[in-house]
Amino acid sequence: MKTYPLIRGLGYYVPERVLTNAELERMVETSDEWITSRTGIKERRVAAPGQATSDLSLEASKAALDAAGMSAGELTHLFLCTLTPDAYCPPAACILEEKLGIRGKAAMDLNAACSGFLFGMDMARAVICMTPEAKVLVCACDVLTSRTNWADRRTCVLFGDGAGAVVITSGDAEKRPGDAAIKDVRLLSDGSLGHLLTVKGGGSGSPMRLGDVVGDDFFVQMSGQEVFKHAVRNMVSVCEDVLAANGLTGADIDYFIPHQANWRIMEAVAKKLGLPLEKVCATVARYGNTSASSVAMGLAESFQTGKIKPGDKVLLSVFGGGFTWGAALLEF
């Protein structure tokens, strides 16, 4: 009988600071009605001054370890999926390792933009396939408000900060209530479309030099309508591939957690997959687009609030800059 890697603990964390649409109305030329009707977002969380990716990741990781009944010292690998690391060097995963009070693990950052969580989860699967005794922490976290232009009403309304984490081990161990088998993961990318969603500034292609003034290149820039079109088409396609490969249809899915970018995108994908909206995770109204962490956060919160139950088949789907996208099938 084939065994699958298991998610054995789920955790998430959001900063305390809530930024509402009403507050944004006083910052830029926008309105609650305009934001809500186009995105479904009512509020988002913003990291406190000095609160970095590793800080949010620490809280989510501790929650996931507690849920797994494990200590940080039992981990063998730490993957931190982020496009907003604390610094270029050292890797944020190594900073997280230190904050967890452990040493000598394999810690690394992974950047697949908003798709990062599924890329990290698939990397954990590969590690466990080669090393069954491995115990892998996959944390997804972004502090995108640090890369938000608060004068750009098209993008500043979209993003929030947060972190989600899972602990993944071999499926050889006994599956407990609350554990989820990772049945399938499919990942794709298309670099020819990368120019449609960017944060260019500070990289080696657009380096910061002494005396430079921070400009638009240092913030998120997006061709919204083009991103919408590609996101819907590609998320639907990869979800259909995962379902077909596992002999399933949308009717077999108990819960769907898409990347929480925009309610319109999420609604369009669900409808094309034949999924009723009551089966769709929707945290976007409260947290906004939290980038790599959105699906990890949605997974943890949905399980903790009873929306996901033992025996449920859960479909995940992501889309992000690169372009990158993917889907995964879990069974609780």
Automatic annotation (TrEMBL):
Pathway: Lipid metabolism; fatty acid biosynthesis. Residues 260-264 are annotated as: ACP-binding. This is Beta-ketoacyl-[acyl-carrier-protein] synthase III. The keyword Acyltransferase applies. SUPFAM superfamilies: Thiolase-like (SSF53901). Residues 108-175 form the Beta-ketoacyl-[acyl-carrier-protein] synthase III N-terminal domain. The gene is fabH. It is an enzyme of class 2 (transferase). Homodimer. The active site is at C114, H259, N289.
